[in-house]
């Protein structure tokens, strides 16, 4: 869909995306998308460090898109060369794109799209700290697995818009590995080292917490190591516990994992009959 062949390169922290194309607009798009395939909710953020002003409506930014079809449904927080920011979406394939105008700002500037189910919200920021909402859209039935990426169009099929992005992050909920139900005797210590899948790029700081469980159980907030030594008074019992892990976001996203612990009372000790052997009196436990 582009007159000039574009390219995309990265050194791991800075991304250069080059593309021509008539526009990302109306019922079909012509642009370059540098993307990853992602599943579920999350936040896609980038700073547009610079772009080539091939046209006042040359547009770049962050996009979540159902497919590479030119008329695919998508949501796009765009920063233009001269006309500020806009939050765009195509609610139905091959139909017109809708748009909400944002502040009249220019690169360098931060852009963000947040997905929560079928609801998408676009933001901009001058510094990556203070964010302004540009718009929100509900796109029922939007594919759970979609293309998350950096979009560039020159708005001119004869020219090439070379755009530099940095501070690119994808924040998604962590996933705790399943925890099997446990059985132990009161007075014994149960220790679990939990594992997770952390799909955020780059990996984000996680915080663990015990969402539900006995008061004398502990869960290390940074490592996720769970420990519990049930008291005799806590047996016999079946205890339902829920561990939670949260990534700071934005927005804060978390996963929980339930499991149960059956606590058995220790066997009652018994004394043997006393015995006298070789002048030594003894009993055994």
Give an overview in words:
The chain has strands spanning 7-10, 14-19, 24-25, 28-29, 32-39, 42-50, 59-65, 74-80, 85-90, 98-101, 109-116, 119-125, 132-138, 145-153, 161-171, 175-176, 182-185, 190-193, 196-197, 206-212, 218-219, 225-228, 237-247, 253-264, 275-277, 280-282. The chain is mainly β and 285 residues long. The strands form seven sheets. The chain has a seven-stranded antiparallel beta sheet with strand order 1-2-15-6-11-12-13, with no helix packed on it. Strands 5-14-7-8-9-10 form a six-stranded antiparallel beta sheet, with no helix packed on it. The chain has a four-stranded mixed beta sheet with strand order 17-24-23-20, with no helix packed on it. The radius of gyration is 28 Å and the shape is rod-shaped.
Order of helices and strands: EEEEEEEEEEEEEEEEEEEEEEEEEE
Oligomeric form = single chain
**First and last CA, distance:** 85 Å
Give the number of helices: 0
**Mean pLDDT across all amino acids:** 95
**Proportion of β residues?**
over 45%
What overall form do the CA principal axes indicate?
rod-shaped
Question: Low-confidence parts, pLDDT < 50 over ≥5 residues?
Answer: none
Give the total of beta strands.
26
Helix/strand structural class: mainly beta
Largest sheet: 7 strands, antiparallel
Radius of gyration: 28 Å
